[in-house]
Design brief:
The chain is built from four helices and eight strands; from the N terminus they run βααβββαβαβββ. It is α+β, with helices and mostly antiparallel strands and 141 residues long. Keywords: Acyltransferase, Transferase.
Length: 141
């Protein structure tokens, strides 16, 4: 396996690949309705793209208020710490621009992953696009 690297992406320049990854994960695999996946916040978000070599395999976005979301890794690369690399890059960028608190809405099955990265559950369970979620928060030191 090649080295995994994560870079900041442009919603305009990298739109096709960002959409392809999210469409594969959320719309095709998890049956999230397209109208819930695509929103106006993408234009103002900082996007991240993970690669194995030159192949794009994962993405996430950071909103101006510190919300990290749309964390998605293509099926064949799950369990290989791609999500860790994406989240570390997103957290580092949030801290670099002064967002001391990062927040996210996590699918319940993924809460242990986020807890390992310092996030804590701060809500009860709720449904988002028919999938159980909880709100989580991480405060930088």
């Amino acid at each position: 396996m090649s080295e995994i690297h994560v870079r900041i992406a442009s919603w305009q320049d990298d739109n096709a690949v960002l959409r392809q990854i999210r469409e594969n994960v959320f719309i095709n695999e998890q049956s999230v309705p397209p109208e819930l996946e695509w929103d106006a916040e993408d234009a103002d978000a900082i996007h991240f793209l993970a690669y194995e070599g030159d192949y794009p395999i994962g993405t996430a976005r950071l909103l101006p208020d510190g919300h990290i979301g749309r964390v998605s890794v293509l099926k064949d690369w799950r369990g290989l710490h791609v999500g860790d690399a994406i989240l570390h890059r997103a957290i580092a960028e949030a801290e670099r621009i002064g967002l001391k608190r990062q927040m996210l809405s996590a699918q319940v099955h993924a809460t242990p992953f986020y807890e390992r990265l310092g996030f804590k559950v701060v809500s009860g369970e709720y449904l988002d696009a028919g999938i159980p979620h909880v709100d989580m928060v991480r405060d930088s030191h």
